[in-house]
# Entry
Amino acid sequence: MSTPTDDPLARERAHLAASRAALRAMREDAEALDIRDVTANWVNAEVLARQIEARVKALADLSGTPLFFGRLDYREQRWETGGRFYIGRRHVHDAHGDPMVIDWRAPVSQPFYRASRKDPMDVGLRRRFGYTGGDLTAYEDEHLGDPADPAGPMEDGPTSKLLQQEIERPRVGPMRDIVATIQPEQDEIVRSGLGGTVCVQGGPGTGKTAVGLHRVAYLLYAHRERLARTGTLVIGPNRSFLHYIEQVLPALGELAVQQATVDDLVAHVEVRGTDDAPAAVVKGDARMAEVLRRALYSHVTMPAEPVVVVRGSRRRRVPAYELEDIVRELLARDIRYGAAREALPQRIAHAVLVQMERAGEAPDDRVQDAVARDAAVKAAVKSVWPAVDPAKLVLRLLTDAEFLAEHAAGLLDEDEQRTILWDRPVRSVKAARWSAADAVLIDEAADLIQRTSSLGHVVLDEAQDLSPMQYRAVGRRCTTGSATVLGDLAQGTTPWATRSWAEALGHLGKPDGVVEELTAGFRVPTDVITYASRLLPHIAPGLTPVASVRENPGFFEIRTVAEPAGVVAACAQLLRNEGSTGLIAADARIPELAEALTAANLGYLGPGEETTRETRLTLVPASLAKGLEYDYVVLDEPRAVVDGEPDERTGLRRLYVALTRAVSGLIVTHAHPLPAQLAG
# Structure
């Protein structure tokens, strides 16, 4: 009988058990901390209590998640603990403080992702572990310094069997991390510095979303104190998408990252209306920023009367020409409208103090503040530089044709102006039926008045669908920080979709951002991505098609069916397999298909709802499919998906998205002819 001393797998299992015990001890130590011994007041106690609570949560042992997934044996034992390191999702140490598991983000862990036979990075052995649930069941070694080792480095794709199995493991529930499967080209992006903005162009299944989330986790590890002060934010296209990805960062031990949609960021008013495509395109155009700036500063008027301030028995007079010089100087400084308005009374007061000093008085700051609050000064400021409400400003532009024409002259032509003007007058801001694009305009106006607070780092996913004005709204949230921009130009499904990443980065305020392209596909099977790539010449001719590195070609079938019974039958067939199944269809066909599934007693969920072992079918409108993934997909009636969009190019892009949601297999069902672009 083998013992742990001569059975490698048993030894690794013993290390796993010991590591889990050490993690429990770390958690128990955190729970046992008595804040009464180290705090002098209740404020400090409250802060420390929250920090301890977060620490306890971060030390949770997720039973179904491997505590470590790899091991590195360095050739030279340069560390006190030797040259062997177990690589996992978080750091674990024993009672003496010696590491039992090293955080995947630590510098010593980097060779796990980048070492190769050409550049072993001083690593003699790289070991990968296979798990079933939380149980360690297998391992696989790569002897990077041994040219005879058949398990070589992954320079041409993942040759590791365990790595391949992890990539192709069925998807049930929310998105999971890829920390065990990060590839060298992905790792370079993940570990890029905090100071620079990175834009990742990646086709379906290249892991761009996971790379963006793992970059956040890495930056929080490498720059924790700075980002704790400045904050981080993940921006997704919709709530369904955010719900799908929300467990990735907590699984990596990061609990403090906020998530939002662009609509959440600009929620200054209640959005109750919609724009037709032409109006939304104009409102989303970057020229609207200048229209708003002109409209805002049109409220500033040059003073025609002097300001007379009474101090005791003396009257101090600031003439109109001197007031005009102050106003022009503030305008020339190009500071925010609100900041300049706040500075104006102080400038007027300073002019009064200069007169007082010339008369032999010795006024101090308190006198200047008192003069700035004088009724005459307040009246002058109100007349010259009035307060402006951003929503009221936008409302006037959209309802007053003369006001719009005055400030859009040379920017928007007459047709464009008519396109965005509302047909009916509106009594008030609250009565207006604001659209999502209107809310972005209000956010722009609000920033012109008062600077928007900046975060340390922002991740913007599915960025290809943003308008220039939406990019500006996001850019305002990271003016002093950096960004990770993720997207695929081929998946742009809005009339204002991004035409180039250079243009997008310019609108974001990050023109020096670096564009990286991921072309290795880890999610979509070869046969499926090859079929979907037939659309690329028609929707994004300059992009490199995704090359699947999966060994399993996947299940793919095009099936002519009698609707909707044939669609239901295809779903029932795929549900016999392990994993999740998504039924994706044109939005207009969802009610009919929902009725058919119910009649067939096939339980289903909506997009964003977490699948379970009992309910593994999700009914997905094509408009919400972006960013989601399922083990198996039934794509209903491709022609209807295309026809459901305002134009054919957008429709074909929507179809490209829908075709590339499958991880293991795809059935395309249709009763009507397929789009001609899929022929061949």
